[in-house]
Write a structure and sequence with these properties.
single chain; 74 residues; mainly alpha; 2 domains; 0% strand
Length: 74
């Protein structure tokens, strides 16, 4: 886990570093993707979509595109 995420967890504060690529607009997880994964582990498409402010269909599209890219690398 990144140092900024550790600090946010210890201080129980939401991250204000909006330029971070892991920042999400979701206060319950301290605005951090790493904290969300640490707290909840594997999440459903609906949980991911809610955290990123997108539809479940869009979340599925992004995941499918990512898996195709990963498969091409191997």
């Amino acid at each position: 886990m990144r140092e900024c995420s550790k600090r946010c967890l210890l201080e129980e504060e939401s991250c204000e570093e909006k330029t971070c690529r892991l920042w999400i607009d979701y206060e319950e997880d301290n605005n951090c993707t790493l904290i969300a994964v640490d707290r909840h582990g594997a999440m459903t498409l609906k949980e991911v979509a809610v955290r990123h402010g997108i539809s479940t269909v869009r979340a599925k599209q992004i995941i499918d595109q990512t898996l195709i890219k990963i498969k091409k690398r191997h």
